[in-house]
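Protein record
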Amino acid sequence: MLQGWGDMSGILDQLPTLLGVIVGGLMSYVVGALAERSRWRRQQEIRWDGQLLQAYSEYGYAVKECATRYQRLAAHRGLTNHPAPLEPTEAILEQAANAEGRRAAMVEGLTLLTNAETAEAVQKLNRCVWHLEWLARGQLAGNPPSWALAFSDYRAARAEFYKHARQSLHIAEMGNVREAPWPPPWRPVQEPSDP
């Protein structure tokens, strides 16, 4: 009987060591799992941030392409000055429609990737681009002051989009950047209208 108690006493003496090994193993597993999870999240953020940056850049370029085409079409209608007005031929209108289609398609990717504030800025910018399109195509009656106002709204919406895009990517604010006077001294223009 005493021999059994001695075996039990040996096990009880080793119990703290055994519990220490078990707790240490569990803690090592938990810390490793948390570190792996954190690393995976960082990799996902980097991956999505890269895709989001590309989506923002491509969308910004597509918006500017549309605005430039509409500005050139508007110049042909006498709504603004541009050194290279476009006559609204079938081919030119088809090119403008294709540019608009590319811009519209990019909105879907942005909607999936971005946050609510930037998505709202995208919607506002889209409405401003459509306003320019309607004026440039003659679907909405316009004159030089209405074009200038619509173009000013577009530029403000574009700046707001870039502000929110930078924030969503955790890029520092640019600070107050003074807008260069438009038109530049070497180019006489009657109203501010440049994409």
DSSP finds four helices and no strands in the chain. The mean pLDDT is 84. Residues 30 and 75 are 66 Å apart (CA to CA). The two ends are 96 Å apart (CA to CA).
